[in-house]
Specification:
Blueprint (H helix, E strand, L loop, with lengths): L1 E5 H12 L13 E7 L2 E7 L3 E8 L2 E3 L2 E6 H9 L5 E6 L5 E6 L2 E6 L17 E6 H12 L14 E5 L4 E6 L3 E7 L8 E5 L1 H10 L6 E6 L3 E6 L2 E6 L18 E6 H11 L9 E7 L2 E8 L4 E8 L1 E2 L4 E6 H9 L5 E6 L6 E5 L6 E7 L7
Antiparallel strand pairs: 1-5, 1-7, 2-3, 2-6, 3-4, 4-17, 7-8, 8-9, 10-15, 11-12, 11-14, 12-13, 13-26, 15-16, 16-17, 18-22, 18-24, 19-20, 19-23, 20-21, 24-25, 25-26
Length: about 375
C-alpha cells in the first residue's frame, strides 16, 4: 500500500491527536496512532480508551487500502522537522514495514498490527443533538474550565455541566468556592436534558476548536458524547451522576453594585497578593463611595500591602475578604473592560458580571467570601 500526502498537514493533525494519548496506557497499542486508508482518504485515530479522537484527510494518491498502527513518538518525531513537501508512505501490510519517503531522504520503521486496536462505539440514533458555533463553544469552555474541581469524592464537580432548558443552554462549572454560569440563548430544547463533560475532553476542545463560526455538533446520551467539528470527531465518556442545583446558590438580590475597570483591579490584586498570608492568601477589600482599598497582610512575617483603586460605588461601606488567586482567576477569564461586583454583606456570595455581555449570552461568575477576623 502506497499513499502520498502533505507533510505539514500530517504533522499538524498528529500534533492535535497526540494530546489524547496518555503517557502510560493500560493497553500498549494505545501508545499508537491508528492509520486507516479507504476511498482515497486517510483516517487517523488516537485513544486513551475513554476518549477517542479521529480525523480524516484527503490523499493526493492512494494505491491500495488497509490499516496499521504506528507508535506516536516515532511518527511525530519523523514528520515534525520536515518542511512542507509531499510525503510518500509505503507500507507492507504483511510484514508491517513502513517507509516514509521525502525529498532528500527516507525513514524506515516497523508498524504494528491494527487488529488489536479497540474499536470505538458509535452513538445510537436516539442520541440528543445540539449545534453551536465553534468560537462560542471554545469561549464558553475557556471561561468555565478553570472553575472545575479536583475531587475524588464528588466526581460530578470535576467536569463542565451542560444544562439544556427551554430557555437557554447553561454551561456551568464550580468547585464549591467559585462558580461560572454561561447562558446561551440561541440554543434551546423543549425537553430539558443535561450532561457533564470531563476535564480532559473539555481541555482538548479548548485547544483544537477554531475561532470561527463553523458548526460544532454535539450528540450525547446518558454515558457518551460525540463532538464533531470540521473533519474531526471526538468521542468521550461522560461523568455519570447528578450535578448539584447550581441556581440555588446564586443570590437573587445583591443590592450593592461596585463597577470597576477590570485590568486596573487585576493589577492591584497582583501587586498586593505577594504580601498576603501564604496559607490563606486572603485579600481584603474595604469598599466605600467611589473607591476600594485592596489590602493584604501576613502577621507571621510582618508584611503588608495596600492600594487604592477608584470605582463606581454608592452604598454602605463594607469590608469583605476573598481568596486572592481565585478572584484574579475570575477576572482574567472575563473579557469586558469593566466588571460589576454585586454584593449583599461580607458573609454572602459575591456575583461578578461583565458590564458588556457577549452577544446572545449571559455570563455570571460567583465567588464565596472568606471570613475576616476584625
Amino acid at each position: 500500500m502506497r499513499i502520498t500526502l502533505s507533510s505539514s498537514a500530517l504533522s499538524s493533525r498528529l500534533g492535535t491527536l497526540a494530546k489524547v494519548i496518555n503517557s502510560k496506557n493500560s493497553l500498549p497499542i494505545l501508545d499508537c496512532f491508528l492509520f486507516e486508508v479507504a476511498n482515497q482518504q486517510l483516517t487517523i485515530t488516537a485513544s486513551d480508551s475513554e476518549n477517542v479522537m479521529c480525523t480524516t484527510m484527503q490523499l493526493e494518491t492512494a494505491d491500495g487500502e488497509g490499516k496499521f498502527a504506528v507508535n506516536n513518538h516515532t511518527i511525530l518525531d519523523a514528520v515534525k522537522e520536515l518542511p512542507e513537501q509531499p510525503l510518500t508512505l509505503d507500507v507492507d501490510t504483511n510484514t508491517f514495514s513502513v517507509k516514509v519517503i521525502y525529498q532528500n531522504g527516507m525513514y524506515n520503521f516497523t508498524a504494528q498490527n491494527a487488529e488489536e486496536y479497540p474499536i470505538a462505539q458509535q452513538m445510537p440514533e436516539t442520541a440528543t443533538s445540539l449545534t453551536l458555533p465553534s468560537n462560542v463553544l471554545a469561549d464558553n469552555i475557556t471561561r468555565a474550565i478553570f472553575a472545575t474541581a479536583q475531587e475524588e469524592l464528588r466526581p460530578v464537580m470535576n467536569g463542565i455541566y451542560f444544562d439544556l432548558t427551554p430557555d437557554a443552554l447553561a454551561i456551568v462549572a464550580s468547585d464549591g468556592h467559585k462558580l461560572v454560569r454561561n447562558k446561551n440563548f440561541t440554543v434551546k430544547t423543549e425537553a430539558p436534558t443535561a450532561f457533564i463533560l470531563p476535564k480532559k475532553p473539555a481541555t482538548l476542545l479548548k485547544n483544537v476548536l477554531g475561532k470561527d463560526e463553523s458548526d460544532v455538533v454535539i450528540r450525547f446520551d446518558e454515558r457518551n458524547a460525540q463532538i464533531s467539528f470540521g473533519d474531526t470527531t471526538l468521542l468521550c465518556r461522560l461523568i455519570e451522576g447528578r450535578y448539584p442545583n447550581y441556581n440555588s446558590v446564586i443570590p437573587q438580590n445583591n443590592p450593592y453594585q461596585l463597577t470597576i475597570d477590570r485590568k486596573t483591579f487585576i493589577g492591584a490584586l497582583r501587586r498586593v497578593l505577594p504580601f498576603a498570608s501564604e496559607s490563606s492568601q486572603l485579600v481584603r477589600l474595604h469598599i466605600e463611595n467611589g473607591k476600594v482599598e485592596v489590602s493584604s497582610e501576613d502577621i507571621d512575617f510582618a508584611t503588608s500591602a495596600k492600594e487604592e483603586v477608584t470605582c463606581d460605588y454608592s452604598g454602605n461601606s463594607m469590608n469583605i475578604g476573598f481568596k486572592g488567586p481565585s478572584l484574579t482567576e475570575i477576572l482574567n477569564n472575563l473579557s469586558s473592560e469593566e466588571v460589576t461586583l454585586q454584593l449583599a454583606d461580607p458573609s454572602r456570595p459575591c456575583l461578578i458580571v461583565p458590564v458588556e455581555q457577549p452577544e446572545n449570552e449571559d455570563v455570571l461568575m460567583l465567588i464565596m467570601p472568606m471570613l475576616l477576623n476584625d
